[in-house]
Amino acid sequence: MISRRAFFVSGAAVLAQEVELDWVDARKLTVEGLGFKDVASPYDRLPARAEGIVRKAVWDLSRDSTGVLVRFMANTTAVHARWTLKGKTLAGPTMTATGQSGLDFYARDAAGKWRWRGIGKATKLPDNQDVLAAGMPPGDREYMVYLPLRNQVASLEIGVPKGARIDRGPMRDERRKPLVFYGTSITHGIAASRPGMTHVAILGRQMNREVINLGFSGNGKMEPEVTQFVAELDASVYVLDCLPNMTAQDVRERAEVCVKTLRKARPSVPILLVEDRNYADAFLNPARRERNETNHEALRAVYAKLVREKVGGLLYLKGEELLGEDGEATIDGSHPTDLGFMRQAAAIGRALKGL
User: Fold this and answer.
1) Residue 232 has pLDDT above 60, yes or no
2) pLDDT over threshold 70, residue 8
3) Pairing relationship of beta strands 153-161 and 79-85 according to DSSP bridges
4) What is the pTM of this model?
5) Which run of H or E residues covers position 120?
6) Using 50, 70 and 90 to split pLDDT, how confident is the model at 101?
7) Contact, 32 vs 24, CB < 8 A?
8) Mean per-residue pLDDT, 12-33
9) Which ranges in 130-220 belong to alpha helices (H)?
10) pLDDT of residue 19
11) pLDDT value at position 5?
12) Cα dist. 302→33, 249, 305, 312 in Å?
């Protein structure tokens, strides 16, 4: 296919020219972040059999591609992408179009560190095409593309100039099992500016692990119907971060059952219980402060009971450690900004240190 799109290199536009591209379906490369193979659509996060078992809201949200990424090796000076969205909106009140519907592009540097390189801008529905990066020095490198946080992706293709080589990303050590996160809109990624800036994605890069994001905006509630699917995933650790969507009564009714279900299915996999983050405006919002305090108290009581019963492999992270105390880490008092996600990644990283 011929792409008649100007490249932008070092801030200056190269004269528009016909650039012949080779396109590869992303599914032929290395796709990560999908815990289930029996899916209804290529980038769904729950299996097709979950429909009708989990609540409709959870099922609908599971079609979003948050946490999904594509890794590949290429000897190319430019990388393009084209993708088809199935959602009805490009952006939301607290979400950029790039975060909700766009792509995020990383490359490994000479030291082996993942470095941000570009974005794929979503400008319309349903089809988009963009240059993720151009003007790169020739050479073999590993690349990574994060899919949208809050939209459904029907298809994704990666394009390189004709003649460039593109192959699957290298296989990971099979002993390094994925980090599995079950949570709320915060885990889902609202309101990261771009898909690679969620704490889930950040930790994946820092720990060099696959991550599986089972965040369901407004609907992370430790429900047994969802927990049974979480338990199917062979993880290195389960991070349970559902309290922002749960009342204290919900915690008392479901948290112990959730933990014991996972422990029965995976006796040796550590489980990190994460308290509700403190609302940034709680110092002048008594209702929000009370919700934080009662949630925290309820989860601490459940944790203490589990420890008394000698349920092993449990870790605990206090909410006060997640976002800091300066009130500058959220967009609306609740959902993290990129600063908030970086702080949250650091806090969870410390909690998982040594595992």
Assistant:
1) yes
2) no
3) antiparallel
4) 0.94
5) strand 114-120
6) very high
7) no
8) 80
9) 185-188, 199-207
10) 82
11) 44
12) 30, 11, 5, 14
Task: Tell me the HSE value of 152 on the side-chain side, using a 13 A CA sphere.
Answer: 15
Two tokens, residue 293: 């305090």
Domains assigned to the chain: 2-6+20-33+68-168 (2.60.120.260), 179-352 (3.40.50.1110)
Q: Which two tokens stand for residue 161?
A: 């100039």
Q: String of b and e for 112-130 (b: at least 16 CB within 10 Å)?
A: eebeebbbbbbeeebebbb
Residues 6+ apart with CB under 8 A from 56: none
Query: Tokens 């082996």 map to which residue?
Result: 112
Helix (H, G, I), strand (E, B) or coil at 49: helix
Query: What interhelical angle do 338-352 and 199-207 show, nearest 10?
Result: 50
d(CA 60, CA 45): 10
Q: What is the dihedral angle through the alpha carbons of 263, 172, 150, 239, rounded to the nearest 10 degrees? A: 20
**What is the DSSP-derived secondary structure letter of residue 284?**
G
Residues 297-343 have pLDDT tens digits of 999 999 999 999 999 999 999 999 999 999 999 999 999 999 999 99
Q: End-to-end alpha-carbon separation of the chain, Å?
A: 47
Would you state the structure tokens that stand for residue 298, as one six-digit string? 């309820």
Taken in order 88, 90, 93, 99, the sign of the CA dihedral is: positive
Reply yes or no on whether the pLDDT at 20 is more than 60: yes
- C-alpha 26/C-alpha 5 separation (Å) is 21
Cis amide prior to 191 (ω within 30 degrees): yes
Residue 17 pLDDT level (bands cut at 50, 70, 90): low
Give Cα separations from 344 to 32, 64, 90, 322 (angstroms).
Answer: 22, 22, 26, 5
